[in-house]
Write a sequence for this structure.
């Protein structure tokens, strides 16, 4: 891959994604196999004026070995030093950049009970940090780079080198980073969201009814004073940033108590190194009443036992089928990309900025107003090329504003 393109991609993460400011601490999360790119991001961060860049390394193989071989009690523990580590950098206003790239199946075959227990204990331990990130009190951004096993999963049958090259091209195109000036392209992309976001906020729908040819037929109530967001976020310090590169979604907060009907997933969900395939769930009074999956149903079940909020919705996001990622017709086995190919819902915690004044409310106040709270936030895709969305007003009148997979 062209080194000049890689440098622009790294700069995009620093300058547009996290929007690193002079004197700011930067924390880069990255797998050890992708160290070469992390170092490139590190250089860009220092060029942007970062005070210090902290490297937070991970290793899929070591993680897998731990889940397979470690004493069982360690999965009910979380190190205090890591909690203190997050607090140290949160208190100093760090921006968190993450480079996502791993084998989608790296935890396949691991005891699901170990995964569930550690997911819960780590979620509790890092709840304060997660709350800051979800309320934009700390800025953060995520991009992806390919790995050989991921590339071979997406493009099976190709030689490894060709699969890697093809996945690189798809990632850069999907992230709008294949042009001569990706940062300018992202500013233009951000401006394109404005009309749709303004329209939806102006309508102030009470609920949405969503149907697809796969069998989804669900009515989702929207939280009182909900806010539609898309095309980037604004940190509490007033600095704009893009949490996800790419992003094609416009999303808001459902009412945690008002979801009725059936949702059929249109793509597999990669969760803890396992692919949940052919799944669906049925909601009643906002709660998952029943569910099933053709593959890795237990992994799906393990989400719901995290806490009561994991069985309710925290986000509804609309994505036009004509988005660059949607038009590729490629299953990436990576939520960062797959969620920007199709409309999706999220189980679990809602984003505070999807409610007027939500950032200033306590968790209890947001829940009382209809927002969901949970240790998890799990996106899953259900959008299709024939998806239809009807906005329902408080007086019962209906408006079709999304049809055949597109905004009208």
């Amino acid at each position: 891959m062209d080194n000049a393109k890689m440098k622009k991609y790294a700069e995009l993460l620093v300058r547009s994604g996290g929007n690193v400011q002079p004197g700011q601490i930067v924390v880069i999360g990255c797998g050890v196999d992708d160290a070469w790119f992390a170092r490139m991001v590190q250089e860009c961060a220092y060029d942007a004026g970062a005070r210090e860049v902290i490297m937070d390394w991970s290793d899929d193989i070591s993680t897998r070995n731990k889940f397979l071989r470690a004493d069982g009690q360690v999965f009910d523990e979380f190190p205090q030093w890591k909690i203190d580590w997050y607090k140290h950098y949160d208190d100093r206003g760090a921006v968190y950049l993450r480079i996502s790239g791993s084998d989608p199946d790296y935890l396949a075959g691991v005891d699901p009970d170990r995964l569930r227990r550690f997911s819960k204990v780590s979620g509790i331990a890092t709840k304060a940090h997660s709350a800051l990130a979800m309320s934009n009190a700390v800025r953060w951004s995520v991009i992806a780079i390919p790995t050989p096993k991921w590339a071979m999963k997406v493009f099976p049958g190709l030689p490894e080198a060709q699969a890697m090259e093809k996945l690189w091209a798809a990632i850069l195109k999907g992230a709008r980073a294949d042009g001569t000036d990706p940062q300018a392209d992202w500013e233009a992309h951000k401006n394109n969201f404005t009309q749709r976001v303004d329209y939806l906020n102006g309508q102030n729908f009470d609920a949405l009814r969503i149907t697809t040819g796969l069998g989804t037929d669900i009515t989702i109530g929207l939280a009182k004073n909900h806010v539609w967001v898309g095309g980037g976020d604004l940190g509490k310090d007033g600095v704009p940033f893009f949490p996800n590169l790419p992003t094609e979604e416009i999303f808001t907060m459902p009412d945690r108590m008002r979801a009725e009907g059936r949702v059929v997933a249109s793509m597999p969900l990669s969760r803890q190194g396992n692919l949940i395939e052919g799944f669906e769930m049925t909601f009643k009074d906002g709660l998952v009443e029943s569910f099933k999956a053709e593959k890795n149903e237990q992994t799906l079940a393990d989400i719901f036992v995290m806490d009561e909020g994991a069985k309710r919705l925290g986000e509804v996001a609309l994505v036009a089928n004509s988005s660059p990622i949607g038009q590729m017709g490629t299953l990436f086995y990576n939520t960062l990309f797959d969620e920007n190919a199709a409309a999706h819902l999220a189980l679990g915690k809602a984003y505070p900025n999807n409610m007027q004044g939500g950032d200033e409310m306590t968790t209890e106040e947001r829940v009382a107003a209809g927002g969901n709270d949970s240790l998890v936030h799990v996106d899953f895709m259900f959008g299709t090329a024939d998806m239809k969305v009807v906005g329902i007003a408080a007086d019962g009148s209906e408006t079709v504003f999304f049809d055949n997979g597109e905004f009208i």
In short: DSSP finds 13 helices and 20 strands in the chain.
